[in-house]
Amino acid sequence: MSGGAREGGSDVRALSGRPVEELTLEAVRRGEIGLEDLRIHPETLEWQASVAEQHANPQLAENLRRAAELTRLDDEEVLAIYAALRPGRATPGELNALAGSLAERGLPRCAALVAEAAEVYARRGLSA
Amino acid sequence: MTAEHSAAGGRPVGRIRFMDAQRVNLDGFAVEDASLGLVAMRSPHDPEPGLVIRDGRVTELDGVPEDRFDSLDSYIARHGLDLTVAEEAMGLPDVEFARRLVNPDVPRSEIVRLSAGATPAKLARVLALLRPAELCQAMTKMRARRTPSNQAHVTNRLDDPLLLAADAATAAAFGFREVETTVPVLADAPSNAVACLIGAAAAAQGVLIQCSVEEALELELGMRGLTSYAETISLYGTEQVFTDGDDTPWSKAFLTSAYASRGLKMRVSSGAGAEVLMAGAEGKSMVYLESRCVALARAIGAQGVQNGGIDGASVAAAVPLGLRELMSENLMVMMRNLESCSGNDALMSESDMRRTSRTLPIVLAGSDFMFSGFGSIQRYDNMFGPSNFNAEDIDDFLAMQRDWGVDGGLRTVPADRIAELRREAAQLCRAVYQHLGLADFSDDHVERAVDAAGSKDLGETDTLAVVSAAQAIRDGGITVVDVVAALDETGYEAAADRILAMTAQRLAGDYLQTSAIFDERLGVLSLVTDPNDYAGPGTGFEPSAERQAEIDAIRQARGVEDLRAEQATAAVPLLAAVPGGGNGAGRVPAPGEDPREVVIGVSPAVGRDVWRCLSGLTVPEVLAELLAGLEEEGCTGRVVRFNDTVDLGRIGLAAARLAGSGIGIGLQGKGTALIHRRDLAPLANLELYSVAPAVTPELYRLLGANAARHAKGGTPDPARNPYNDEAIEARYHTTVIALMALERAWVKPGALPEELALDGLR
């Protein structure tokens, strides 16, 4: 559990694909390391989700699986979706459109979260 | 009280005025008022626990039917409960649930299983049944991580980066595994994050860093790798207050995933009082509202919760059972299988006793984090507001750990090591700021930051430079990689390596699991790798021998050898035995014949190992005063060392029997003194100066003069023992024990007394 080989034989690597062993000062000196090399890989999050599930926390597992999806979005878009989910920011239509777009792009769990928000916000007066 | 007294027509009596003036009376105490939410454990408006499930869907939650669910109910009902265990959990009588919670034979996993099916109202009812000692017992069993830990606040009034770095290094050295900073000036946030990141890495590997600011900026700092966790993602117990906080359960759930998607640890924050302060408690008890927050925390997939009042701790503390409520909040987090960061981070009373009473049970029981911010800096520098414990209290806390033999996560660090680490941290921070073109700091500034006990010791600083450095970090897109490169290029490779290794841990994600911290070798301790296995006495967490030694070895502890060395510094050559005869080295004194002669008997180690009294006076100084007192009244004195006893009564009596006048003075090396007469019983005496630490030169002179008056058959001038209100015994008993050990080592049964030379005393 210390960041080495995982169950199923997958090694830890960054979102960029760079293996964790290559995160060295030498690589920094060569100017090779960017933020992409410090970002967690979705497969790692999936694996951590399965660990959370085995430790009696399916909600944490679900969160980590949503997070795995979000690794595919850039920071600005993540912040923009968060902003849209704050109360009174988006109309139910806008939220549903966002959910649709996320679903289309292969983020079904995030899409479901946004779609559920659209429904409840409309009922509770939390939409724009 | 004031009204009562004025009604009686006069000011209160002195006893009441005295009590009114005590610091505890600066605290606010509220009359319980359920309509305002000023009620800790049970309000008449709290719902009856209840859960109706139809076709795998919750259709009623704690008495509210689905069509009337507010957004919190909706989220909890859809995501927060394990419906496969709900019927069993809800059907379990509250008392039975509470007993299982406390019983060490029922494993933690069983309580976690049951709690997953319990509604907020159900858990609130169960917790209301626990008495304080039962809360401790349950917490010992229920916390997720076996090894307890602690978190520090590191902030200052000026957002001074060098002081932040030095203080983060100090906090890391003391053993804190999380450092939380924040800002008085929002724009400074990126600079504070960088300074704490560098400072903590200078002192220890694996310290998690947080910069608590507005949600979006905090996430941005984390994405850049400048911080490694977040905890101020607030949840509230009513929909209205939640919405006023500009969030919903869905936005918070999304934010939780956003942090995880960047490999960042996060926990949410809630706690009693927040709803009351916003007049939004809807008449519910604090424990019930918090139970909704914690159910929601689990539902949105957060791994942990910071609660236990937090900003509202003093609101809970103002009502009856308030402290039980605060501790119950932490416990319900543990029951929901989440990490508990257990509050104690806001000064909840002006009374040292009340604030200690609030914190102690949690330290004794042990928590994932006993404080969600122990103020590692001085109160005035804490930009979260003073914590319940602060830099003023670090030594108190270290002593408390040692007193109870519990691991509160802190350790003693030698003074010179602290100086070294502070200097290194400040220098590293300066080098990075300079290298990245953020700011230039002078040598003098570094020196001031190293030595400063707080920002008031820094003198005038350029606060605009901090704002512009922060702006440059933000606008220039500075990331942790830039910080690592800057450290490396300025010659601080070890620190660069540490930060890089820590950052690489994001890729593995092991620290996203519940209750994760790093040890100092970057090993992850969490619910997964270090699960709490408490099952009664002889099980669960016990500090390792090495850790126990760290807890025990506070820097104030002294042994006999320390004292012997200290005593030797006051040694003088003029208090030696007069040579000749006897079975010791010195001359055996003959009985005196002069009726004006008084003998001063001293204890065996005087002039050998013991040279300084508890009062700080040296033994020769005391003898000089005694002799001067005798002379003032026309008497003479001889000093004789008795080698067969440490008992002051026997020494005084033996001295009296040698004296021509029949009057003796007994003096122990620690400074306790008495006047004796040859015909009295050993334990009787004429005058006793028992409070050795407080005896002054004037009193010793008076003792000498009074001994002379007894010798002449005159009237002594009665001396009063200098009693005061200090904890004299706490201060001196350990020294007394060591001094008496030194005395005892010189005792030889049957050894004869010997006269001491007085050259140089007169």
Task: Explain what the structure shows.
The complex is a heterodimer of chains A (128) and B (762). Chain A is an all-alpha fold and 128 residues long. Chain A folds into two domains: 1-72, no CATH class; 74-128, Hypothetical Protein Yqey, Chain: A, domain1 (Orthogonal Bundle). Helix content of chain A is 56%, strand content 0%. Chain A has helices at 25-29, 42-54, 58-70, 75-85, 92-104, 108-124. In chain A, α2 (42-54) runs antiparallel to α3 and α5 runs antiparallel to α6. The model of chain A is unreliable at 1-5 (pLDDT under 50). Chain B has 762 residues and is of the alpha/beta class. Chain B has three domains: 31-142 and 228-313, lyase (Annexin V, domain 1, Orthogonal Bundle), CATH 1.10.220; 146-212 and 344-557, TIM Barrel; 567-755, B12-dependent dehydatase associated subunit (Rossmann fold, 3-Layer(aba) Sandwich), CATH 3.40.50.10150. Chain B is elongated, with a radius of gyration of 33 Å. Helices cover 44% and strands 10% of the residues of chain B. The longest helix of chain B is centred in the middle third of the chain and has 21 residues, at 415-435. Chains A and B meet through α1, α2, α3, α4 and α6 of A and α3, α6, α11, α13 and α15 of B.
Features:
heterodimer, A: 128 residues, mainly alpha, Hypothetical Protein Yqey, Chain: A, domain1, disordered N terminus, B: 762 residues, alpha/beta, Annexin V, domain 1, TIM Barrel, Rossmann fold, 3 domains, four-stranded parallel beta sheet, 44% helix
Q: Biggest chain pair contact, residues each?
A: A-B, 60 and 71 residues
Helix content bin of chain A: 55-70%
Mean pLDDT of chain B: 94
Helix content of chain B: 40-55%
Largest sheet of chain A: none
**Which stretches of chain A are low in confidence, meaning pLDDT under 50 for 5 or more residues running?**
1-5
- Inertia-based shape of chain B: elongated
Compute the CA-based radius of gyration of chain B: 33 Å
Count the domains of chain A.
2
CATH arch. level architecture of the largest domain in chain B:
Alpha-Beta Barrel
The separation of the N and C termini of chain A measures 45 Å
Alpha carbon gap, first and last residue of chain B: 62 Å
Note poorly predicted spans of chain B: none
Oligomerization: heterodimer
Structural class of chain A: mainly alpha
Please give the count of helices of chain A.
6
| Rg calc of chain A | 18 Å
Shape of chain A: elongated
Give the strand content of chain A: under 5%
CATH class of the largest domain in chain B: Alpha Beta
| Helix/strand structural class of chain B | alpha/beta
